Amino acid sequence: MSGHKFFIIAFAAAVITFFGGAATASEPGLSDEPSLFERYTSGAKDLVLKGLELVGINYRWGGTDPDSGLDCSGFVQLVFKDAVGLLLPRTAKEQSKIGDVVDKDELKPGDLVFFNTMRHAFSHVGIYLGDNRFLHAPRTGAEIRVEDMSQGYWVKRYNGARRVVEK
Predict the structure, then answer these.
(1) Fold of the 3-163 domain
(2) Fewer CB atoms near the end CB (10 Å): N or C, the chain?
(3) 124 catalytically annotated
(4) Model-level pTM?
(5) How many CB atoms lie within 10 A of CB 89?
């Protein structure tokens, strides 16, 4: 198994562990609520897992092919096409016009989150994972990765969210 594939499998296992398993009533002090990952619909799970498969792929401006690199909207477009068979528009700006507007406190895994990273609204897009984390292709010289939306950089640049796949 290649090092890259091993990393992806290990990363996916870490994310699933991060979201946790359901606690049982017999475990003291723990709720019997299902974990965040268990609350995902199959569509959201498919989106998250497909996105995680692409962690580590290089960013490339205008990129739509994982072999040569992906930009943020190319990444989102590929994940939605491969995971749920939905072809989204090509750019972050165009993607910001589809689906239903979602308040920040109502975000669910699989929602699209948008940021102003180029001095204009909706210039960057990622896929929300839950717990203030999102998957995205950040910039030239970087790789697809998970980020924390509560970091100051992202808080200042947040533009909103859209729900394209019903949860």
Answers:
(1) endopeptidase fold (from Nostoc punctiforme) (3.90.1720)
(2) N
(3) yes
(4) 0.79
(5) 14
